[in-house]
């Protein structure tokens, strides 16, 4: 039981650190967009474009990783 608790705790800590890293990248990319496309009055279109591009990237990456890990599990 203790091992399962430690395993879950490690999973939660890893997920939290991933979230912090994701938020840091989010701020960096937003800063880059504001630098490249200085829309001082209305930056909503740029933010929507950013959200759409990131969503597409995450979906493609998730599908790729799912296939990769599925093949690796089957090989074991």
Describe this structure in words.
This protein is mainly alpha-helical and 76 residues long. The mean pLDDT is 84. It folds into two domains: 1-36; 40-76. The chain starts with a helix and ends with a helix. The protein is built from two helices and no strands.
Describe, in short, the structure shown.
This protein has helices spanning about 1-35, 45-75.
Which structural class best describes the helix and strand composition? mainly alpha
Instruction: Report on the biggest sheet.
Output: none
The count of helical stretches stands at 2
Mean of residue pLDDT values: 84
Q: How much strand content do the residues show? A: under 5%
Provide the gyration radius in Å.
Answer: 18 Å
How far the N terminus sits from the C terminus, by CA atoms, comes to 26 Å
Helix content: over 70%
């Amino acid at each position: 039981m203790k091992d399962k608790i430690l395993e879950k705790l490690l999973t939660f800590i890893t997920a939290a650190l991933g979230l912090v890293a994701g938020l840091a990248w989010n701020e960096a990319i937003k800063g880059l967009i504001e630098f490249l496309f200085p829309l001082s009055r209305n930056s909503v279109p740029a933010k929507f474009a950013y959200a759409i591009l990131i969503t597409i990237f995450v979906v493609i990456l998730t599908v790729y990783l799912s296939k990769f890990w599925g093949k690796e599990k089957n090989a074991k």
